Amino acid sequence: MESCSCLRRCVARLDTYSLIDLLGSGQFSCVYTATQDSDSTLYAAKYMKLEYNDNKQNALKVMLLLKEVDIYKAVADNPNFLRMRNYSRKGDLVWSSKDSKMSDGPGTEPVIYMILDLATQGSLYDDIRLTGSLPSEVGRHYFHKLVEAVECLHQKGYVHRDIKTTNLLLDGELNLKLADFGYATVVGPTGMFRGFVGTTNYVAPEVCMDKPYSGVKADIYSMGVVLFYMLAGTIPFSSGPEYVCFLKKDGMYWNNAFKTKGLLPETFTPEARNLIDRMLSMEAERPSMEQIRSHPWYNQTIATAEGLRTFFRKRREQITSSYERMLMEVPAEANCTHVSSGEFGSQVGEILEYVSRSAAQPTKGPDDSKLPIFNVCG
Questions:
Q1: Which residues span the domain enclosing 256?
Q2: Of the ranges 4-13, 17-26, 368-377, which one carries the lowest mean pLDDT score?
Q3: Is residue 372 assigned to a domain?
Q4: 373 occurs within a structural domain
């Protein structure tokens, strides 16, 4: 957990929490950084607004929240997930006066919410998008953690159904945390599902077809896409014909990928290609978790904790240098308005956010032993 070292403007109050910065939003929910009145620790507050005079919609939202609560409870002992600190079936969201325009209703809105530990270092997607692919030892380290997380989820009787790099978060110590159980669900007696759920480019091909599919095997496919992305810095398939070429297993896909995707031979070794080939195959041919764990590529050298810190420090020094070079390219007569506008301004903003986030030294929050793992309100 991170401590807030400076006073920051509160945009809203959520019971005993102060909401600060918007982290993201979805179809039903929003996620903000938050602090509690009793301490300065930064958390992630995820809430869903309850609708006036729409009990059916509200019942659905409560069901979705409680499903996530159940999953967080089930995986609480696994270090590869965020810890849930609190949740409530009935909360009051009160916007600050200057931000009342963000509210669709009156000043106070009824919500349901949960409080999670904050992953202060963002997502693996952010790191890879801004600084490039990961070397094998680093990618293998995070892939191990992903396997441990998904295997735990499956053993508890759930499938995730939306595994992607934006849902792989990093805490202050650069530990991986699998997040977002919005599409996760219980595995029934057959283990089979039907209908599209997930994110395009990460979902298995059978998920897009109108027929039953294995939720576990679909998760394994998504893990294969994540592995490819970590090692290549791009997704494996951008079109149907490209996947058809991949399925032929005649080497043509990899030959084309080395040319068009800039793959590194030292990263995509025969062992790495073999594991990805198997994970991205059609459903019946995909390996089990046990087979993934026993694969030769999986059991090669992984980065140590110190190696990870060194790697990311060097990466962030490089991005800082890139930012400085970008500023040097701005004409001397350019004013702040020019610098902050357009594509260039967007790039500068992303780099500034990345550098400021990574520059913050990990700080410990309150003693975990004194914090409740679960605390239900309402």
A1: 124-293
A2: 368-377
A3: no
A4: no
